[in-house]
Known about the structure:
Blueprint: H1 18-31, H2 35-38, E1 47-50, E2 55-58, H3 60-71, E3 76-87, E4 90-102, E5 112-125, E6 132-139, H4 141-149
Parallel strand pairs: 1-6
Antiparallel strand pairs: 1-2, 3-4, 4-5, 5-6
Amino acid sequence: MFAFIILPSMAANGQMPSEQQLAVKYIKAVTDHDYNTLVNFYNRDSVFNDKTADKTYTGKRDILSFLKRAHQGVLEYDFNIEHMFNSDSLVVMIGNYHYKGPGEQFGKPGKIIDLAIPSVTTVTFDEDTNRVKEHLDLMDYQTMADQLAIQ
């Protein structure tokens, strides 16, 4: 009988691989609304793609403008990473985006809503510059809709 144990990928020194460390720093900047840090992650070729919402933003200015609009009035926003792995500069993060804030953009004016949206986020970095080549979100909008229906 064989038993397989899956361990998080670790670099030779026992630390998280540098690509994953970079991805965590990047996602933290996104969820903390840290635009001063985000400026350094994007260039004119960077792509932010929310595949399940069919929305794509290209270039530093377009992406930052979108994030600033999306973050307006948000009280809490974070990404709880449950599993993460990478293949070279492609980092895959599986978890839940937690959002708490005004319900206006979700058709619930005057209410504060609280959502936990199961998601897969991938980030591909340029290996030379550490800038984002592509940020891809796959979010479970059906679960979000179910949560909104009871709030």
